[in-house]
Amino acid sequence: MKQRLTLALLLGATLLISGCGSRSVGNKIDDQFIPSNVSSNIERAHADLGSKSSHIVVTSYNGVVLLAGQTPRAELKQLAGQAAGRTQDVKKVYNELQVMTPSNALARSNDALITSKIKANMLLDTTIPSSKIKIVTENGIVFLLGLVTRKEGQSAANVATTHSGVQKVVKLFEYVD
């Protein structure tokens, strides 16, 4: 009996907290599964897309998918985008793959450091709803996804541009105003 009460309270608290955001619980759950489903579809589209000759990062926010990374040929980039678009629950695909050899471990570590610094600075800025923004850095390019107002999106982009190593900031926001 006590376990059921605890479970019911946890479920209620989770639903209450998730109701405070602009995405539904279903959208949040879908975003947990979309990247792996997209990755599987991409790997099935061509052997080179699942091999070491390609480095593909798949991110989802509110059903919007970002493909970032590198693949050696333009036709592979196109195949990856098509495979992502055929995945269930995907509303839109931003195919930002670069046609080049995959980045190395040092570049990926640098990208992770850039992302961490940007996230930390966004947490400190009260004008940015950092919990509604997903940040992906790939080969020095910072991608920003989320559900924000235009002002919040611009503030987030401004914070992202201030970090060394950032080559470019790409805003892929869904605007709520």
TrEMBL record:
<dbReference type="Pfam" id="PF04972">
    <property type="entry name" value="BON"/>
</dbReference>
<feature type="domain" description="BON">
    <location>
        <begin position="30"/>
        <end position="101"/>
    </location>
</feature>
<dbReference type="InterPro" id="IPR051686">
    <property type="entry name" value="Lipoprotein_DolP"/>
</dbReference>
<feature type="domain" description="BON">
    <location>
        <begin position="110"/>
        <end position="177"/>
    </location>
</feature>
<protein>
    <submittedName>
        <fullName>Osmotically-inducible protein OsmY</fullName>
    </submittedName>
</protein>
<dbReference type="InterPro" id="IPR014004">
    <property type="entry name" value="Transpt-assoc_nodulatn_dom_bac"/>
</dbReference>
<dbReference type="InterPro" id="IPR007055">
    <property type="entry name" value="BON_dom"/>
</dbReference>
<keyword id="KW-0732">Signal</keyword>
